[in-house]
Amino acid sequence: MKFTAMVLLCALFLSSSFFESTMAGSSFCDSKCAVRCSKAGVQDRCLKYCGICCEKCNCVPSGTYGNKDECPCYRDMKNSKGKPKCP
């Protein structure tokens, strides 16, 4: 019984640590999205979606607008309405 409890506690600890690290965002994405969204009208929304796209695609196009051909994954992500997801 103690062994099972210990295994469950370890699994819970490891999964929560993993979850926190993935939700924190990477410094790569944070810095790239800060540049990408620097001129956005709605900063928090731009940073949110840029961060989601960057974490999935591991790249962010250069500049504040356009250049999406530099990152096809980022360019091709769509929202539920079929519109581009990534700023």
Characterization of this structure:
This protein is mainly α and 87 residues long. It has one domain. The chain contains 4 helices and no strands. Helix 2 crosses helix 3 (43-57). The longest helix is centred in the first third of the chain and has 23 residues, at 2-24. The chain is globular. It starts with a helix and ends in an 11-residue tail after the last helix.
Q: What's the total helix number?
A: 4
Q: How would the global form be characterised?
A: globular
Contiguous uncertain segments of 5+ residues: 3-24
What share of the residues does DSSP label as strand, in percent? under 5%
Biggest sheet character: none
Structural class determined from secondary elements: mainly alpha
Helix content: 55-70%
User: What is the tally of beta strands?
Assistant: 0
Rg, alpha carbons: 17 Å
Overall domain count: 1
Mean of all residue-level pLDDT scores: 82
Distance between the termini: 51 Å
The arrangement of helices and strands along the chain is HHHH
Family: Belongs to the GASA family.
Keywords: Gibberellin signaling pathway, Signal
InterPro entries: GASA
Pfam families: GASA (PF02704)
Can I get a quick summary?
This protein has 87 residues and is mainly alpha-helical. It contains four helices and no strands.
List the helices and strands and how they pair.
Elements: H1 2-24, H2 27-36, H3 43-57, H4 72-76
Helix pairs in contact: 2-3
